[in-house]
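ESCALATION

Customer reports they have been waiting on this structure for their group meeting. Please prioritize. Original submission:
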Amino acid sequence: MKKLFVVFMIFAITMAMSAGGAQQAAQVSGASIVTAPGTFPVVNQPVTLKVFASGSPSIENFETNEFTKFYEQKSGVKLDWQIAPPNSVAEQRRLSLAGGDLPDFYMNAGFSKNDEVLYGTEGVLIPLNALIDRYGFYMNELWRDIPDAKSMLTAPDGNIYSLGRGTDGVHSNFQPKYFINSDWMKALNLRMPDTLDDLYNVLSAFKTRDPNRNGRTDEIPMITENPVGSGTNQAIAFFANSFIQMDINGFLVTANHKVDIAYNKPEFRQTLAYLNRLVSDGLFDPASFSITNAELRQIVENPGIQIVGSVVHGSPSFFYAMTSERQKSFDAVAPLTGPGGLKLAVYNPHVISSGNLAITNKCRYPEVVIRWIDWFFDQEGQMLHRIGREGIEWNWAAPGELSYTGDPALWINIGAQGGSTNLFWMQYGVAGYNRHHLQRGAPPDRFYEADGLNMRLYEVTRDFYVPYAPAQYLPNMYFETAVLENIVQPMNDIANYRSQMWARFATGDLPLNDTNWNNYVRTLDQMGVQNVIEANQRTYDTFLRNAGR
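Update from on-call: job pushed to the front of the queue and completed.
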């Protein structure tokens, strides 16, 4: 820590001297408050910006975080933080917008494409196109290399209302996955499940045969959580695809590009019945429908002895510190074959996301925000804010080194990641393009180590999930404003209603009989679900035409 402190102090002094020189030059030239694109600091006088941001269980304190302080010195921009808990960020963002006390910008606040269009056309969020063209440097450089990236952020009216981030990590497109405790499997001499019936037998063995060998019935065979920003429980998303194709939002697309929903079909009812059987028999923790990520980690990382047998999630890093020895026990399970022979992965391709950073009409210095965020699109900015400190968490790769995908490597991990830190932003992706494939693959004996996580996720995704991707899927699309105005409220109401009903059916709070199921389907119709389907179909048809399909 002493070495780190010295490094940051030296940098702070250097930046202060640079800032003074830049400010003096600005006074002579009459330049604006921002400096030339691609240079630092980004302003010629100190600026404080108010930001509304989602918290992260991996970051101890944004305000005192070493990277935050480092970038304040480098950029000349100080942030006034308003942090919302991850499990309530969408609600608190809505309150913020409704109350009128807007921040200068929102960061990782859960804006959907629909939110962008609505608040953008209302003028609450400002268009970024001209700001990007004039003040962007690294982002414009990146978009010259990846032309589709900019188009994926552009709303139907031609405006960009938010910035996002992209990834080449194929594992990000297959969420959630299923991880099972292989130590328990070996202790009980069990085979990895291939079907839903196989899994039921495995979980029953976890419950009754004392795999943690403590003489107590304290095992939790399976657990998960609701992902942030989605009303779809991860277990429901994963297991539904053993009965019917369904993405994380409940949609399916047939072979002839017809859009429909899965969650009013008899096959989806079978999904809920299967999960209800697991809950009723003590094999699936009903707390999975209400706990936060922090609570999930606390349960899985139970001190003293391991009590969890399997977790539905995107990566072991979401439920275990990667420095823990126990996380090495969790191996991926391929999608499971259902009673009708279906075996599909949950596929949600999002090479370029949006909604990570949006500037409000209350911001006095929107050009400063663009200059501030621009460095996050640079590879060095990505490395320092997401991966850590050069020479401590990572190093640039030597010439000739290859990544675990066989591509030329750019950097290598040299330090463990996982848990919570106050040194950098630990995978808190604000914007940019995260080229995971440029990391050098760890040797085979590092597969279960913290520095082998990307290789581990890449390989399990390639081997267990990519072969079961659906042939057709609904991309993440922008709706036309006129279409969106008619369906946004029904979409929100339906999302809230269905998530509540799924939890009630799965946990047994509401019996899954014909009367209750028919009432559920009838209520969806009354709420306008067919209008939502039709709006998605029209938008998808336009997407296909524009893509030349």
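Sent to customer with the following note: The longest helix spans residues 2-29.
Escalation resolved.
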